[in-house]
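Reply to thread "Modeling small-molecule complexes from scratch"

Following up on the discussion above, here's a worked example others can learn from. I took a protein sequence and the SMILES for flavin-adenine dinucleotide and predicted the complex. Inputs first:
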Amino acid sequence: GPLLPRSGQLGTLENATFDYVVIGGGTAGLTIAARLAKFASVAVIEAGGYYEVDYGNASVVPLLSLTGLDVIDPSTSFPHRPEIDWELVTIPQTNAANRVLHYAQGKTLGGSSAINTMSYIRSTKSAYQRWADLVGDGSYTFSNLLPYFKKSVHLTPPNLAKRNAANATPEYDPDSFGIGSPLEVSWNNWVDPTLTWLAKCLQAVGLTINPKGFSSGELNGGSWLPSTIDPTHATRDSSQTSFLDEAMPGTQIKVYSHSMATKILFDGSKAKGVSVSTNGTLYTLSVNKEVIVSGGVFHSPQILMVSGVGPKAVLQAQNIPVVADLPGVGQNLQDPISINVANFVNTPNAQSIVANLATEPEALRQYREEAAGPYSSAAGYISYERLPTELRATLSNATQAALAAYPSDWPELQYIVGTFLSSNGSSMGAISATITTTFSRGSVTIASASITDAPVINLGWFSNSADGEVLIAGVKRVRQAWSSEPAQSIRLGPEFIPGVDVDTDAKILDFLKNNVNMIWHASSTCAMGKIGDKMAVVDSKAKVFGVQGLRVVDISIFPFSPPGHPQASVFMIAEKIADDIENGR
Ligand SMILES: Cc1cc2nc3c(=O)[nH]c(=O)nc-3n(C[C@H](O)[C@H](O)[C@H](O)COP(=O)(O)OP(=O)(O)OC[C@H]3O[C@@H](n4cnc5c(N)ncnc54)[C@H](O)[C@@H]3O)c2cc1C
């Protein structure tokens, strides 16, 4: 790959003053820092280092983003990789069989954009309209956000010669993209044969290809997805390899890596700096202008709380002096749940090719010499829909009414196709169902006044019974796809997961409670809202209520979990708020 030299510590460990100090060099943090550094002095404090150094190929090679990233194991026996993962573990999920889950979050420059599955999907026009309405600011409609979406990415059209899969030609709306920079968005240079079959199964039950793709404000039908990938080298593009790499030589941006922001410091109610710890050295980075918190969904509320901004009772219980009593900090957590319906199949997949000693050398050659072949492939194919009438009719009246409150272009379910090897080396195909109307709510709070104690996470799974009902319908819908005519050409044996004995709603619900997974899209723990909204944490310019000189810019400020995949909107919001700041808003 084209890796630039990656040094470790880049700032000197002593008190200093900047215009802006950004807490967290993750997806949003490096994006906004790089933009602000064009006209101001900026420091970034990041707990991790360079993932290319700390984690090597597993975080760079696209195929390994699906299969090699052992950090995404949600079980409590997850492999320990403290150099790139926060190793967060939830409290027992009381409505989900008391499960305790590991929730991967990137602890590295690039944050979760360095460990995610790289798919690039925006939300729907009505979802952004709802965002605009909730926060009382018309700049959040899709058409007004589009310039920021365009600015944050550089699109390279698919390389059809390399993809070499006639039935997997991506369709998309080029007008939804522009000539932004520096984050690369493009398509895989190889298509997994099993995924083309699974896409056909979804198409056979009515989820036909959406000619506009999923970046023009529509989420229905199916699409071969673009991802955040450098198409020339077929390597992951993250906020680090794009925004930070561009800013490093071009601006005076200072990065304090392997460094913890331990507390935001206030002068009265004005943020005046950040206390930092690097390998035991404590120092203060002061601001002329603002502190920007970009710690992600779990750590942004934590740093606010340990600094005195949060629910008064929580702060007082930890003897933290109250700077601003904001009851919404850590509340409103929304985490979409997902389940696989999986079967053995007779088709090869990327893993069976690279696991086979006869075919692996050619796969390696293709990747090294042509940036193509199985190693170059990550995100594949996704479909969205509102439930068909006959399945909607199986829901309780309360759940039907709850769904009816959503606008008509808001999908209710997402289906992701996937493929992997079973422990005995056989190919498996999986179609997952994921809810896109998360009714359950969780929370994040603190165990102590110290930033070094992990935040206390309750995902709130199944706290609202509508989520289970909708996901049961999703399982039935995926079973329809697995019963379609194309599926008969590839399926081997009876249903493997959940299994043919899981055949009633009650049994499916029990299976779900014991087996659903996160798709790592948790959001909304410092939710944006209108002035006067008691549970809102930031206003529409991302300014924290009740204090001055402090914004939060990351996925925690989404007012709700938007359908689609979040990183596109995370990059967008960082661009938007950077523009607000540059223009004095
Ligand atoms: C396994 C996985 C797969 C995913 N797949 C996809 C996908 O395919 N498509 C998609 O759109 N989205 C995906 N997502 C979600 C998406 O990546 C995240 O929503 C997004 O990256 C969040 O960005 P953020 O800026 O809010 O937080 P992050 O990118 O996580 O950044 C937070 C940063 O703050 C740092 N930090 C936190 N606290 C401190 C502190 N006290 N001091 C110093 N530094 C601190 C962290 O180390 C981190 O670098 C996935 C996420 C995961 C984890």
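What I'd highlight from this example: Residues 119-236+337-437+462-515 form a domain with the Glucose Oxidase; domain 3 fold (CATH 3.30.560.10). The mean pLDDT is 95. Questions welcome below.
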